Every structure is written in structure tokens, then in C-alpha cells.
Amino acid sequence: MRVLVLSDIHGNLEALTAVLDAAGQWDALWNLGDLVGYGASPNQVVDLIRPLAALTVRGNHDRICCGLTPTRNFNPLARASAKWTMQELSTENLEWLRALPQGPLAPEPHSADEARVTLAHGSPLHEDHYIHNMRDAWAPLQQMATAITFVGHTHIQCGFAQKEHDWHDLRPRYPSRVGSQIWRLPIAAGVRYLINPGSVGQPRDADWRAAFAIYDSVACEVVFHRVPYDIATAQERVQRARLPKRLAVRLREGR
Ligand code: ZN
Predict the structure, then answer these.
(1) What is the model's pLDDT at position 99?
(2) Is 103 exposed, middle or buried, given 0-12, 13-18 or 19+ CB atoms closer than 10 A?
(3) For residues 143 and 153, what is the distance between their CA atoms, to the nearest angstrom?
(4) Which structural domains are found in the chain, ordered by start?
(5) Which sign does the torsion angle of CA 225, 229, 235, 238 carry?
(6) Cβ–Cβ under 8 Å, residues 158 and 94
(7) What is the distance in A from the centroid of ligand 1 to the CA of 113?
(8) What is the distance in A from the centroid of ligand 1 to the CA of 32?
(9) How far is the CA of 121 from the centre of ligand 1 (A)?
(10) Could you count the other beta carbons within 10 Å of the beta carbon of residue 41?
């Protein structure tokens, strides 16, 4: 089975459409949350993802933008965009976001011999915790029932692998930041993985291109992708919506 794994779209319609165009054929789409917040197209993003995603885990921005959690713990930039998003979202999309399940989720395998995986927005042990480094990754790597867990939340495309006393970080390496590029990660038997596909709509690893991953359970690999998108239009929309200017600028910086 070929699965398109997306996270942290953040209301960026231009990035999402570029990703869907670049992804080719897939059998299922798993969405790791934060569809909205920051970007200027929350309704368009939710409308596009709803019929496509087999599973969506809620993210912290999804929760806050639909009123499930107060905005007080957000920084001023995130708070301003959450308030704007809440007013912008249609009633139907607000209700859909409110009903999103909390992670971790376990999608049903397509066949009996297919490995089970776990999906979460933040850490599978706590939905709001970030997994930035091996220290953060260690406990979930030990405790998850499945060998592979997909997570988002940090907006940084990466992974962590562990087999007994052997452990390492996985950082996709691309020859440049121009055009579309991929980086293949073979999934080895007996190794446990935490894998972050990166952020579609607001990458923070100094690479502005939209990030996503394809998990191929038959070929036993995860292919990380970076694709350019129409960033000028996404920035223009942020400015036309009168969202803070920084939200447009940071897209180009990849921060
Ligand atoms: Zn996010």
C-alpha cells in the first residue's frame, strides 16, 4: 500500500495543491493534523482534505481554532492567526475540526501481513509534546506498540530510529533547495522508527519547499519529498487577509 503522509498544512492552499500534484497515485492519505492556523486559506484546505484523508489526527492549532482549547498559551502571532481563523471557518468546518480524534490513532492495515503503524500529531505519549531530538524520541520509541509511528508538530522533516542499543537521527539530505527532490529511507526489520514527514504549509527547517512523505508498505520504504509551490500567492493571501506580515515573510525563510 502506498500512503501519502501529510502534516501541518496550516491553511496553505498553494502548498497543499503542489503536494497533491507531486504525490502521484496513492492508496490512502493520513493527515497528522494542524490543517489550519497561520495560513490564509483554512476553509479551502479543510474542504480539499476532508474527502481525501482516510484518517486525520487533530493538532493543537485545529483544537484552538475551533474553540476546544483557549488561545492563552499561544504566542501573539499564533493567537492572532487562531482568532482570525476561528472567524473565517464555516460552521460546517468548525464542527468537523471539533470532532477530529485525538492521537495516537492506529489505522487498520489493508491486509493481514501488513505492518501496523501509529499516527500522532505531537508525541504519541502526549499530543502537545514536541519530538525534536533523540531525548524526546526515546520514551515513545520504547513504548509504542508498533515499529513505525508517524508524527508532526515540529514542522521539521526528520526521523529517529532505534534497534536495541543502536540509535540514530534521520535527516533527509537533498543536493540543493531547487526544484523537487526526494530522499529514500529503507525500513529495516527489527528497527523502531518515529518519522516526521515535515510541514506542508510552514516548514521550519530553513527549506521553504513544501514537505511530505510517501510510505510504501510493500517496498518497505518511506520517501521524503520537497516540492516548490506558488509561495507568492500564498504570501499575498496572508497580506490580503490582514494577518500579521511575519506569517507571510517566514514562509520564504522556512522558519
Ligand atoms: Zn503545526
Answers:
(1) 97
(2) buried
(3) 19
(4) 2-253 (3.60.21.10)
(5) negative
(6) no
(7) 33
(8) 9
(9) 8
(10) 26
pLDDT digit string (tens) for 132-145?
999 999 999 999 99
Radius of gyration of the chain (CA): 17
Q: Are 81 and 244 in contact (CB under 8 A)?
A: yes
Q: From the CA of 112, how far away is ligand 1's center (Å)?
A: 33
CA 109–ligand 1 middle distance (angstroms): 27
Tell me, in angstroms, the distance from the centre of ligand 1 to residue 164's CA: 31
Q: How far is the CA of 203 from the centre of ligand 1 (A)?
A: 9
Question: How close is the Cα of 56 to the center of ligand 1, in Å?
Answer: 14
Query: From the CA of 155, how far away is ligand 1's center (Å)?
Result: 6
**Which residues 6+ apart lie within 8 Å of 249 measured at CB?**
235
CA distance 2 to 135: 30
Question: So what's the pLDDT on residue 118?
Answer: 96
CA of 200 from ligand 1 middle (Å) equals 10
Spatial distance between the Cα atoms of 151 and 104, rounded to a whole number of angstroms: 9
Q: Could you report the average pLDDT of every consecutive run of 10 residues in the chain (255 residues)?
A: 97 98 97 98 98 96 94 90 97 97 90 87 96 96 94 98 93 94 96 98 97 96 98 98 97 96
Residue with cell 489505522: 107
Which pLDDT belongs to residue 30? 97
Ligand 1 centroid distance, CA of 122 (Å): 9
